[in-house]
Amino acid sequence: MPELPEAQVIVNELTPVLVGRRIIRVQACDEKFARQLEKFKIFRPVRGSEIQKVKRRGKAIVLDLSGGFSLLIQLGMTGGLLFFPGGGYPSHVRYWLGLSGGSKLLFRDTRKFGKIAGYRRGEPENRPAFLKTLGPDPLSSDFHSRYLRERGKNRILSIKEFLMNQTVVAGIGNIYSSEILFAAGVDPRQPTRSLDSPAWERIVRQTRMILRRAIDAGGTTIRDYRRTDDQQGTFSSALMVYGREQQSCVRCRSVIRKIRQGNRSTFFCPGCQRLLPFRD
Ligand SMILES: [Zn+2]
């Protein structure tokens, strides 16, 4: 599932090929996405507009268009954006934008959990709910240990689920939350109200470090994620716990465990990630 680093890689790769191009056509290839394009009245403001900026909000992609309209593209579990210079296109394309010069921007999504929405930038009250509730970006200065401690101080929620909550911090999902907590030496089951200041500081530091390293590596390719040019990200080989259950920890040789938390898989090392004492 694409998380912040994979979205940033898409932004970095699409910016040089999209900015300055005009959108001449919007084409839905799937019922669900056709309904979303209708609902947000996307066809009229998008056709004829120029792509001015490609940016990221959490793990979603935003295209700022001329005329004050923006497209919010959520990748869901298996979504990806592909720039196609011309001609036909691969399977599982749910909608595409026809661009000046004959190229296309394709949204490809096998499982169809992706979403598209549109909004006028001058009307903050009409922004999609996802943007209204999104927490700070972990690579921005709004993300720091004081903020996290404040948000987590009265909660019994586990730190793993807390980090994956998009209203707390934007862009972290299942893979990077497991990796961040391993690097920070924090047990993923630790209730947030029982974490001490040094632990919050390690979490912030490791979040920044791991996300930046993953962006530099082109993201993590697991199953469906592909970069815009169909290349694979190479961060998969740097994963320390994710997907490594029953293998030995690279640091302490303990056996990596896999547990269920909030209906998702969590991977951790019982040797490196110790539970701090807490009361229920
Ligand atoms: Zn270990």
Mean pLDDT, all residues: 93
Biggest beta sheet summary: 4 strands, antiparallel
Strand content: 15-25%
Radius of gyration: 20 Å
The coarse overall form would be elongated
Helix-strand sequence: HEHHEEEEEEEHHHHHEE
Helix content: 25-40%
Number of helices: 8
Provide a descriptive summary of the structure in words.
The chain has helices at 4-18, 31-39, 43-46, 129-133, 145-152, 159-164, 174-184, 197-216, and strands spanning 23-28, 51-57, 60-65, 69-74, 79-84, 93-99, 104-109, 115-120, 257-261, 264-268. With 280 residues, it is an alpha+beta fold. It has a four-stranded antiparallel beta sheet. Strand 6 and strand 7 (104-109) form a beta hairpin. It is elongated and about 60 Å long. The model has no long low-confidence stretch (mean pLDDT 93). Zinc ion binds next to loops.
Topology:
Elements (H helix, E strand, L loop, with lengths): L3 H15 L4 E6 L2 H9 L3 H4 L4 E7 L2 E6 L3 E6 L4 E6 L8 E7 L4 E6 L5 E6 L8 H5 L11 H8 L6 H6 L9 H11 L12 H20 L40 E5 L2 E5 L12
Antiparallel strand pairs: 1-6, 2-3, 3-4, 4-8, 5-7, 6-7, 9-10
Helix pairs in contact: 1-8, 5-8, 7-8
The structure holds zinc ion (ZN).
The site of zinc ion (ZN) has 7 residues, from loops.
